[in-house]
Amino acid sequence: RGDWFPAVGPGCKQQRWIKLRDVESGVDVTTQGSGMIEVVAKLLRGPVFLTGEELECVIAFTNPVTARSTSAGSEMLAWASAQIHCQFHTSESRVSLPPSEDTKYDVQAENETVFVPNRGERGKCILATPPKILFCDLRLEPGESKSYSYCETVPLDGPPSFRGLSVKYAYKLTVGCQRVNSPIKLLRVPFRVFVVYGLENYQFPPDDAVAPTNPFLDEDESITKDTRLVDLATEMLMSSTSRRSLHLYNISNVRGKVGKFCIFKAIYKIGEDILGTFDFSEGNIPCLQFSVSLQTEEHIQEDYQRKPGQPVSLSTHARHQESCLHTAKTHFSLPVPLSATPSFMTTVVSLKWRLHFEFVTAREPVEPPTVLENQSEIITWTGAGKIDVDTFSWDLPIKVLPTNPVLASYVSQLTSFNSITI
Q: Residue 198 has what DSSP assignment?
C-alpha cells in the first residue's frame, strides 16, 4: 500500500510528494477528513542550546473531540517533516550584502507541495540541517493522538543567536505538514544558540567506558555525549572567567590626577556582576560625578558596510551614576543580562563589550565643609551654586562569554513549545 511518497530535490532543499491511490480500500485519500488536527511541538530541555549539542523535540498530532463536534470522523495527514534553520536578516541602511542566489526558494507559492522552512520570513536562510521525515500517511481516529521524537545536532559552524541594530541571527525548528490537496502548514519553535569557541576542537573518547560516571544515577541514566558536552563547556567557561587578576588604572585629565580605578578581572559570563572600585583620595582634581555604562559595540565588517567608515552601533545594557564630591572611595556593580549576546565574530558582524566611563571634574579645588572638633550646634553646608567643570570619557574593553544553556533556559523569554491547528 502506498499513498504518498517523498521525492527529495537536490541538496535536500526541496521535498515533493507524489500522490497515489489507496490500493487496499480503493478510496481516494483526498476525500478523507474535514475536521481539524492539533499539532504541538515541545523542546524537552528548554529553548537554549550550544552549537554541537543535540536538540530533542516531541511533536504531537491530535484529532480532538470537542463539544461542538457533530460528526466525528478520522482525519488524515499526508506527511510531516522537520528541520532546523538559521535566518539571517540585516538593516538595508547599514549593511550591503551581495545578491543572493537562493531567493527562489523563499518565494515558493503557498499551495505548492515544497517544504521550505523559512517561507514567508524576512532575510535569507544561511544554515539548515537536512529535513527529516516524521511520517507519511497518518490517520487519526477521533480523540487519538500520536507523538514523534525529532532529534538533531545544532550545527557547529553556525553563528550565535543575535538581535542587533544592524544584523539579526535567529534559529528556529520548523515542522511542516500537509493535508491532501491543501497548502503546507508550518509550525515554528524559536530557540537560542550559544557558541563556545574552542569546543569544536574537542574530541570525545571513542570508548564510553572511560567517561566519568555518577554513582547516584541508574544505569539507564548514564551520562551521554550530549550532557558531557554541556559539562565540558561549563568547565571551560568557569576556567576562563574564574581567574582573578587585579587591574589598576590611573584616572587623569590635562589638569592633573583624578583618582584610581580597580577591576578584578576582564572576562565575564552573561549573568555575572561586574564589580569595580574608585579611589579619589589621592587625586588633586575634584571629581563631582561619574557614570559607568555596560555597552556593546556592533561592528559591521568593512566589506559589508553600506557607507565607508560608518560608526559602530552602540547598545547600553546597564548603567551606574553617582555624585562623588568629597567622596574618598566608592564602588559600582553592573549585571551582565542573561538575555544579552556574548562576544562573537562572523564574516559580516562582530560584537564587542566595553565599560564606558564619563567623569565630571572641577577646574578649581572645592573646599569641604569645616567641622570643629567641639562643634555642638548643627551646621548646614551648602555646595557652590556654580562650578566650572571639565568632562571626559574613557572606554575599557572587556570580554563576555556564554553561560550554561540550562541556566539561561530558566530566564529565557522564548517558550519551549508552540502549536497550530490544521
A: T
